[in-house]
Every structure is written in C-alpha cells, then in structure tokens.
C-alpha cells in the first residue's frame, strides 16, 4: 500500500517566518503534489513535481516555493509566512502525472500563522 | 481547461436512507472522472473512478457513480448510508491525455452529514 507521510499534523508559526512542510512517499512515484484545502474552496494545486529537481507551478504558487532533491521527498516552503496562508496543506503522489492512476494523499498538515 | 461543480456544499441524510451527491463538469476534451472521500482529520482516498467502458462504476464502501456524457455529470450514490459515511466528498476530473497544471481539477466538496 502506498504511504504518503507528512511530517507534522499541526504546526503554528509566526508571520514572517520561513516555514518548511515535508512530505515523503514510499512507492517510488515519479510525481508529487502540494495542495491547500480551504473551506468552500476545495483543493487548489500549489506546485507539482514530475521528477527530481523538476517543478511546475499550479494554480496558486504565489508566496510558495518547493524543493525536490530526492525522489521520495517533496518540500513546500513558505518564504515569509503570512496570515492568509493559514490552511490545511495536503501532499500527494502518483505513478503517472495525470489520468488513469489516482493520486495518493497524506493526512495533511494544519498550519496556523499567527 | 476544465471545471467541476458540486452543487451541494452540505447534504444531510438519515441513517439507512439513500443518498446522491451531484457532480457536473465541463471540459473541451474527453475526461477521466474520480470521486475521493476525506474522513475527519485524514487525507483524501479514492472512492471510485471512471476511465472508459461501462458508465456505472462501483467503488468501495458500497458507493457507485454513473457517468452521463450528454449531461456531463458523474453523480455519486449509495442505497443505504451509515454513520461512518460522514465525510467530505470530492469530485475530480482529469483530461484523458496530456498533462500540465490543468491535469486534475477538484470540485469544492460536499459534506455528507448522517443523522441517526
């Protein structure tokens, strides 16, 4: 069974801090994704990566960056956290970029920026 | 580009009653369709998917969905719900070829509330 592990379930940070959210998958998937989930807005794609050191912007990349130095690990970075980045963050991985193969999700990190 | 509309943000239903969660999509190309479920304090997991073939697809936990191309719909149904079905349900669509950031688009979710 695919396991996607997000390092923290809950995180509280202060405005202006640099924040790192970590995600690790154990199924040798090529593709990894970061979403944020907000009530009434569903899931919105922040960034995705289709290979080591490769990344693509999603729908809402502003204020975020990502790092993929190893195949199994995909990090989301908030360069200077702001209160409007308080949200639930979900990481996912998949064998194929889009289409037939589903995405496998971690349990999420609930991030609060004070 | 594609979009997904889940018409109901919340659906309350009594235990053992049937339920239908509605999903409509728009796309200029052929698509694959998915339903994901998110139980409280968990990530999303795949409930079922439509890729091709029979328009009625069966998923886990007794759920099924029917693809209707003419109405661009993919409604989710269960004949008898249980308290454990309380969750957020997301419809998602992906083009059947190509990629990029338009790949997988989620609806805004429907919160299924089961009342005893």
Return the CATH class of chain A: Mainly Beta
* SSE string of chain A: EEEEEEEEEEE
> Could you say which structural class the secondary elements and strand pairing of chain A correspond to?
mainly beta
User: Largest protein interface?
Assistant: A-B, 25 and 27 residues
Helix content of chain B: under 10%
Sheet with the most strands of chain B?
6 strands, mixed
Name given to the CATH architecture of chain A: Sandwich
Model regions low in confidence, pLDDT < 50 over at least 5 residues of chain A: none
Order of helices and strands of chain B: EEEEEEEEEEEE
The assigned CATH architecture of chain B is Sandwich
Output the CATH class name of chain B.
Answer: Mainly Beta
How many H/I helices of chain A? Answer: 0
For the terminal residues of chain B, how far apart are their CA atoms?
41 Å
Q: Give me the secondary-structure category of chain B.
A: mainly beta
From the alpha carbons, calculate the radius of gyration of chain B and give it in angstroms. 14 Å
Shape estimate of chain B: globular
Distance between the termini of chain A: 37 Å
Mean pLDDT of chain A: 92
**Any idea what the shape of chain A is?**
globular
Average pLDDT, all residues of chain B: 91
Overall helicity of chain A: under 10%
Structure, described:
The complex is a heterodimer of chains A (114) and B (116). Chain A has 114 residues and is mainly β. Chain A has one domain (4-113): Sandwich (Immunoglobulin-like), CATH 2.60.40.10. Chain A is built from no helices and eleven strands. In chain A, the strands form two sheets. In chain A, strands 2, 4, 5, 6, 9, 10 and 11 form a seven-stranded mixed sheet that branches. In chain A, strand 5 (42-51) and strand 6 form a beta hairpin. The radius of gyration of chain A is 13 Å and the shape is globular. By secondary structure, chain B is an all-beta fold. Chain B has one domain (2-115): Immunoglobulins (Immunoglobulin-like). Helix content of chain B is 0%, strand content 53%. Chain B has strands at residues 2-5, 10-14, 19-21, 24-27, 31-38, 44-50, 56-58, 64-68, 73-78, 87-95, 105-106, 110-115. In chain B, strands 2, 5, 6, 10, 11 and 12 form a six-stranded mixed sheet that branches. Chain B has a four-stranded antiparallel sheet with strand order 3-9-8-7, with no helix packed on it. Chain B is globular, with a radius of gyration of 14 Å. In chain B, 37% of the residues are buried. Chain A binds chain B through residues 4, 9, 40-43, 45, 48, 50, 56-59, 90, 92, 97-100, 102-103, 105-108, and chain B through 9, 32, 34, 36, 41-46, 49, 51, 90, 94-101, 103-104, 106-109.
């Amino acid at each position: 069974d695919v396991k996607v592990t997000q390092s923290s379930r809950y995180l509280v940070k202060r405005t202006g801090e640099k924040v790192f959210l970590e995600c690790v998958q154990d199924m040798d998937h090529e593709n990894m994704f970061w979403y944020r989930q907000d009530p009434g807005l569903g899931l919105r794609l922040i960034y995705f990566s289709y290979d080591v050191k490769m990344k693509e912007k999603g729908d809402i990349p502003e204020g975020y960056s990502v790092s993929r130095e190893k195949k199994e690990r995909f990090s989301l970075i908030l360069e200077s956290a702001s209160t409007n980045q308080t949200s639930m963050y979900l990481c996912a991985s998949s064998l194929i970029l889009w289409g037939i193969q589903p995405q496998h999700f971690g349990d999420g990190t609930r991030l609060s920026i004070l | 580009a594609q979009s997904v509309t889940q018409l109901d943000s919340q659906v309350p239903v009594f235990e053992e009653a049937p339920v239908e969660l509605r999903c409509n999509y728009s796309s200029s190309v052929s698509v694959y369709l998915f339903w994901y479920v998110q139980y409280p304090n968990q990530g999303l997991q795949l409930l079922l998917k439509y890729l091709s073939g029979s328009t009625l697809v069966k998923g886990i936990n007794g759920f099924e969905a029917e693809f209707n191309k003419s109405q661009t719909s993919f409604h989710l149904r269960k004949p008898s719900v249980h308290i454990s079905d309380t969750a957020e349900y997301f419809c998602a669509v992906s083009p059947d070829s190509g990629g990029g950031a338009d790949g997988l688009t989620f609806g805004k979710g429907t919160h299924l509330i089961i009342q005893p």
